[in-house]
Design goal:
5-stranded mixed beta sheet; globular; 344 residues; binds zinc ion; alpha/beta; binds 5'-O-[(R)-(carboxyoxy)(hydroxy)phosphoryl]adenosine; 10 helices; Nucleotidyltransferase, domain 5; 10 strands; 2 domains
Length: 344
């Protein structure tokens, strides 16, 4: 079964062709970083306009790269939410138009379920139950995927998402947008123990997260000590050390809460997905802690951590297998919020 996946929930216009939920024939992502970076974050209206420009060329490119035509596609899978409403509408409208014209079924995909499925593009999906951490720019949540494949949200952030904290701290440090990858790179040459930033564990047994405190702590730090790059400043520290210390506090909380969930639910499999799953320190620490507990870690290739349409096509295939190969109604609407995310 050949599925054309379409993703436009935030600032990437993406399309991909995937066969039988595993074989990736093409994977096209048009990034809008250049559009949004002058503003230090995504400007929703600009994102929508850029999606309108990009969506058809990106779909054509995905088909061409896969060596298939529209008539060869058996079905469409598209992100319905959560995300920026204007951005979602572009992908959804394109998918609906194609589905109508081609008389092919369409499957609405939850973006977070898409992220989760990215962990199983290259690895065999484990038997449920398992635990999954979805950690991105818009979301930070822990899911317990039960025997019947239902994903229950068992913990989530009470304020900022982890990626949001990375992006806000990067903006504060004048490192541009998106900041996660820049901080990750700087931190590789820094001392994570140089400074001690607050790690928000919340209540001892809680699987929730909080990242706004650490962002504020970095803001106070910079107010007090200035930035090393400012020639007039009196800063006497290395930006690399600040990046590494900030990162350590974020990563340790993510790892600790994920392992708490692994232990609480007694699972042998743990998956991690979303943009922040691309972080080198998080990947290394999760490997260590999972190995220590003899749990199997599923973590997507870096390419599939950030937003892409392969994960949408894979999630669509799984949804279809679960409920039968019939489409969603074409009246379906975009959903900016979609709380109880993934699962049937
Ligand atoms: O999944 P994603 O592409 O979009 C959302 O659904 O939010 O995630 C984007 C987020 C951004 O906040 C970005 O800074 C972060 O993922 N990110 C990283 C890294 N690469 C991307 N954060 C930390 N380290 C990275 N290497
Ligand atoms: Zn995402």
């Amino acid at each position: 079964m050949l599925i054309l996946g379409i993703e436009t929930s935030c600032d990437e216009t993406a399309a991909a062709v995937v066969r039988n939920g595993r074989e990736v024939l093409s994977d096209v992502v048009a990034s809008q970083i250049a559009v949004h970076s002058p503003y230090g974050g995504v400007v929703p209206e600009l994102a929508s306009r850029k999606h309108v420009e990009n969506i058809l060329p990106v779909i054509s490119q995905a088909l061409r790269a896969a060596g298939v035509g529209l008539k060869d596609v058996d079905a469409l899978a598209v992100t319905q939410g959560p995300g920026l409403i204007g951005a979602l509408l572009v992908g959804l409208s394109a998918a609906k138009g194609l589905a109508y014209a081609l008389k092919k079924p369409i499957c609405a995909v939850n973006h977070l379920e898409g992220h989760m499925e990215a962990a199983f593009v290259e690895a065999e999906r484990p038997e449920e139950p398992f635990v999954c951490l979805v950690v991105s720019g818009g979301h930070t949540a822990l899911y317990y995927v039960t025997h019947d494949g239902t994903a229950q949200c068992v913990g989530s952030t009470r304020d900022d998402a982890a990626g949001e904290a990375y992006d806000k701290v990067a903006k504060l440090l004048g490192l541009g947008y998106p900041g996660g990858v820049v901080i990750d790179r700087l931190a590789q040459n820094g001392n994570p123990e140089a400074f001690s930033f607050p790690k928000a564990y919340l209540e001892k047994s809680s699987l929730d997260f909080s990242f706004s405190g650490i962002k504020t702590a970095v803001a106070y730090f910079v107010k007090k000590y200035g930035l090393p790059s400012e020639t007039s400043s009196v800063a006497t520290y290395r930006l690399e050390d600040l990046a590494a210390s900030f990162q350590e506090a974020v990563v340790e909380v993510l790892v600790e809460k994920t392992m708490l969930a692994v232990e609480r639910f007694g699972v042998r499999h743990v998956a991690v997905a979303g943009g922040v799953a691309a972080n080198s320190r998080l990947r290394a620490r999760l490997q260590e802690e999972a190995a220590y507990r003899r749990a199997h870690l599923y973590i997507p290739h870096i390419r599939y951590c950030t937003d892409n349409a392969v994960m949408v096509a894979v999630a669509g295939y799984r949804i279809w297998k679960r409920r039968g190969f019939h489409g969603d109604p074409l009246q379906l609407d975009a959903r900016s919020r979609w709380v109880d995310a993934a699962g049937p």
